[in-house]
Amino acid sequence: MNIMKTAIVTVLLILPIIMFAQTMEDTVKSSSQIAAEEYNKSGNQKFGNNDYDGAISDFDKAISLKPDYAVAYKNRGKAKAQKKDFKGAILDFTKAIELKPDFSDAYSNRAAVHILNGFYKDALKDLNKALELNPSNISARFNRGITYNNLGNYTDAIKDFNQIVSVNPTDDEAFRLRAFAKYKTADYNGAIQDCTMAISINPKNGKAFSVRGDSQYASGKQKEACADWKISGTLGDPDASSKINTKCR
């Protein structure tokens, strides 16, 4: 009996130690996660202030505390892309996707780097996946419209920009890019209308003046075209002077 009592007392003494150890482990994990989230938040703030080195440092710390932190990998990839570390950005976006296969934003951001590098087919693959996962991902749809334009698929580009302007009717770039696609498909009147809308939203959109000038010229309105190109030139369009010199004499 004495042996039995001793055994019971020993077990009772050990159990609280084991339970306490588990509770401490959970607390440590929770503290690490909280700290990781704080570093991620700080990194986002620094990113917003264009402090990309500081942001990367904070995201590094977040990841060291929480190695499966997909959002931190995605955010670090964005900061690396801003520093033109495209290889590092791709690796981070890819890691975020490995950790979270349904991460629409990670696919969209990786596609953005592919676009910057001119890898439009790779970008299209990622953008299709991003929109499959989240059809409401506006940045993915916008970038897919750009990708379609670069691949010469103007019909599908117009479809994407149609959806964007229906959601955000003050997006001057969406109107301008849709105008470019319409210009390429010889819908000159439609292109002029879209550029006019873009200009009404943002009078400093020099590219909108440029595309409208191209569309005016293609539809036989030389005077109007030259006027648009002159404005686009004052707004920084590098091609304006050559157009004026060759087509406005």
Essential attributes:
249 residues, Serine Threonine Protein Phosphatase 5, Tetratricopeptide repeat, 13 helices, 82% helix, disordered N terminus
Explain this structure to me?
Helices cover 82% and strands 0% of the residues. The protein has 249 residues and is mainly alpha-helical. It has a domain at 172-249: Serine Threonine Protein Phosphatase 5, Tetratricopeptide repeat (Alpha Horseshoe), CATH 1.25.40.10. It is elongated. Mean pLDDT is 91; it is low at 3-25.
Concise overview:
The protein is mainly alpha-helical and 249 residues long. Helix 3 runs parallel beside helix 5 and helix 5 runs parallel beside helix 7. The chain is elongated.
The value of Rg in angstroms is 27 Å
Shape: elongated
Q: Structural class given helices, strands, pairing?
A: mainly alpha
Q: Can you write the helix and strand succession as a string? A: HHHHHHHHHHHHH
How many extended strands?
Answer: 0
Number of helices: 13
CATH-assigned fold name of one domain: Serine Threonine Protein Phosphatase 5, Tetratricopeptide repeat
* CATH domain class of one domain: Mainly Alpha
Give me the CATH architecture of one domain, please. Alpha Horseshoe
